Amino acid sequence: MSNRLKVVLFSEINSKLGSPFLRVLSAHPLIKLIAVVTSPENVLCSYFVNDDTTVDIEIEAKALGIKVLRPVRVSAPGVADELAKLEPDYLIVANFQQLLSPELLAVPRIAAINFHPSPLPHYAGLAPFFWMVRNGESQSAISVIKMDEGLDTGPIIMQRQISLTNQETTISLRTFQEKQNVLMLLDLIPSLANGAFTCVPQDLSKRTYYGRPQEQDYLLDFNLDAKTLQRHIRAGYRHPGAHFFLPDGTKVVVLSAIVPHGVDIGVPNLPGCIVQTASGIFIATADEWLQLLTVEVNGVESPAVPNTIPEIFRLARQMTIRDEIASNTQDQMACVTDF
Description:
Blueprint (H helix, E strand, L loop, with lengths): L4 E6 L7 H10 L3 E7 L19 H7 L3 E3 L9 H6 L5 E5 L7 H4 L5 E6 L7 E2 L2 H7 L4 E8 L9 E8 L6 H25 L14 E2 L15 H11 L5 E4 L5 E8 L15 E3 L4 E4 L4 E9 L2 E4 L6 H5 L4 E3 L10 E3 L2 E2 L1
Parallel strand pairs: 1-2, 1-4, 2-3, 4-5, 6-9, 12-18
Antiparallel strand pairs: 5-7, 7-8, 10-11, 11-14, 12-13, 13-14, 14-15, 16-17
Helix pairs in contact: 5-6, 5-7
């Protein structure tokens, strides 16, 4: 088909969203994928670094005979000029973590569009799936916007709502959104081809923005209530993981935990206090006990039961747990007790 839309795809080199977008765009009868712009050499998107399976956008694109650009900075002089020579109709951005300059946004004949995993204008910015799980949202969405010079501020072309169960982890929500974005791309392509799509401006008075999660966002603060801590654990799963430190500096990553029922170990009155029983290991929070189910220590995942990992917590007996979020000046007592 001679009148296929010419598209340039922007995505991170190891993106689990970019890889299926590449396959769809390269095979679709209405699209001619003319180039892929991806990460600089030796730069990976942190979202996917610890996934069991990996992808490489450059290898996939070159195998299909598609031109690949890996500029150090996408806004560097000459990048826009090089892409302009290809005369694309659209730039499609799918998990690309550099801002496109005004010169780049002016390159496509029709538009630059971005797929964003949140219900814009809410959760603009990086890693919205992390923040939505951490904040306990019951509703999510994926959005396609026509890009402007702002960060995730352009008008909305298409948006799909996603109901959450409040049991999602960051990885499970991210993966589900990736699949839904591929389906939305397939639905959107005919509208892009005939120019029939419309744009609805975002109500930026309702905008919320979140940046890249920092180390302190993964450090568990046992002064918080148990349900909040459960959300933080699911948000941190699996890398780098929600964690705390034992007195000797051992880092304990909590992979899963529950608020137990019917456990007769008294009322938690000292946040951070660890109790061992024959059935499990419990940590006191601001309001309830939190039972650890699985943990990771020194890269080894273990069920959190005393007969398999007692050595992890023995060091904490009558000593203190470091809680860097709560206070750097007052340690909490790790009153490890056997029941």
